[in-house]
Design goal:
Elements (H helix, E strand, L loop, with lengths): L7 H9 L3 H9 L6 H47 L3 H14 L5 H5 L1 H13 L1 H4 L3 H18 L25 E6 L5 E9 L3 E6 L10 E8 L2 E13 L2 E6 L4 E3 L7 E11 L15 E9 L2 E6 L8 E7 L5 E13 L5 E7 L4 H32 L10
Antiparallel strand pairs: 1-2, 1-4, 2-3, 3-6, 4-5, 5-6, 5-7, 8-9, 8-11, 9-10, 10-13, 11-12, 12-13
Helix pairs in contact: 3-4, 4-6, 4-8
């Protein structure tokens, strides 16, 4: 029944008596109970829900793609190392526990590997295991550590010993200082130095106040150090800094330098070359004497200058050869006609860099093992007996 008391059946009969024009006019007078404002809010809610769904979908896809790539990297590394099923399982668990964006770091960095292992051993899943199973996992971790060529990081040997120091900073030295909370690095000259105070003179006037904390950086013997200092006073363009911490070593290298002896082939690779047929080359025999990931020190009878490019073929194992384009960073003169080239390999993928880093770690382990064997042999042999007159 409608609001006028006419039954619905009566409305139907009445509608049948209307002609087409009257029916169209009646329909145009009908309005939705929701109203224009209601439709606007419905559209806005649907728009927000759709946007949220898209964001969730993108995040889920990126997560899925990262996990898939992570599994592929673990599988490739496991194949390269010849891991059995249990070692593969533990390696995947270590990578997952580490939650590193750069998965290759777990395979090449001792620090990253140890952090990931520590996170795995602290996880609820491992903690709830029996002691026997935890010992089994620890044994598999040791096997992985050896096959990856990683040593446990030695905190005592992580950095060189700090210089005596503060004494080594002398009047006239050039330093760099950084105001805590600011990214600007300033050049200063040392105007005076004592055991607990450093007087510096900036190249340009600096607005500073007593109590501010600065970071002082300086280089000694090719290594960089830093320590904290507080501003005591500032007068006549000079700033008096009180030392508040011991010097800390700054490791600016991503990969260690490891001595080695490996055969190599080197060829110059200029952009323009005259009087040369297409495809001909001028490779010469050389030797890689130092590994540092994608950075190599090579001895070869070639004449190149810093900034030039070379083609390099390096033998890693019995039947493995790395071929890459490198940029010469520094040059020097070796024995005889040999040139010493510091070369950075260019255009390498993360996996290729990881392979070189793994080889660097293996070389470091081999060197350490050889040094330990020599030290043990020398200790067992004892000091040489002095020769007698009749010898």
């Amino acid at each position: 029944m409608d609001g006028c008391g006419i039954p619905d059946s009566g409305n139907a009969v009445l509608a049948q008596t209307l002609n087409a024009v009257e029916r169209l006019e009646a329909a145009s007078e009908w309005t939705s109970p929701i109203g224009g404002a209601g439709w606007f809010w419905i559209f806005l809610v649907l728009l927000v829900l759709g946007g949220a769904g898209i964001v969730v979908g993108v995040v889920a896809y990126r997560r899925w793609r990262h996990l898939r790539r992570q599994k592929e990297q673990v599988a490739r590394r496991a194949d390269q190392l010849g891991l059995d099923e249990r070692e593969r399982y533990v390696l995947a668990a270590v990578v997952k526990a580490g939650k590193l964006r750069n998965v290759e770091a777990t395979f090449t960095s001792a620090v990253a590997f140890e952090r990931s292992v520590a996170a795995l051993m602290r996880s609820q899943r491992v903690v709830s295991m029996s002691e026997k199973r935890r010992e089994t996992i620890a044994g598999l971790v040791e096997s992985l550590r050896a096959k990856l060529g990683l040593d446990r990081p030695d905190p005592g040997a992580a950095a060189p010993a700090a210089p005596a120091a503060e004494v080594e900073i002398a009047e006239g030295d050039e330093l760099r200082v950084v105001h805590r909370g600011q990214a600007v690095e300033l050049a200063v000259r040392v105007a005076g130095s004592t055991d607990d105070e450093l007087i510096v003179q900036p190249n340009n006037p600096v607005d500073c106040h007593p109590g501010e904390t600065w970071l002082v950086r300086y280089t000694k013997d090719g290594t960089m150090w830093e320590f904290d200092a507080s501003v005591r006073e500032s007068d006549d363009g000079r700033i008096h800094l009180g030392r508040t911490g011991r010097p800390r070593f700054i490791n600016r290298r991503r990969f260690p330098r490891v001595p080695t002896r490996r055969p190599a082939q080197v060829a110059t690779f200029p952009f323009w070359r005259e009087n040369m047929s297409l495809g001909s080359g001028d490779f010469v025999a050389g030797e890689v004497v130092e590994l540092g990931g994608p950075g190599l020190r090579v001895e070869a009878p070639v004449e190149v200058a810093p900034g030039e490019r070379v083609l390099l073929a390096l033998k890693l194992g019995e039947d493995q050869v790395v071929e890459a384009l490198g940029k010469v960073r520094r040059t020097g003169q070796g024995a005889g006609a040999e040139s010493v080239l510091v070369v950075e390999l260019l255009g390498l993928s993360e996996e290729e860099i990881a392979t070189l880093a793994h080889e660097t770690n293996l070389a470091a382990r081999a060197n350490a093992r050889q040094a330990a064997e020599q030290a043990a042999g020398a200790e067992a042999g004892g000091p040489d007996e002095p020769e007698g007159p009749g010898d």
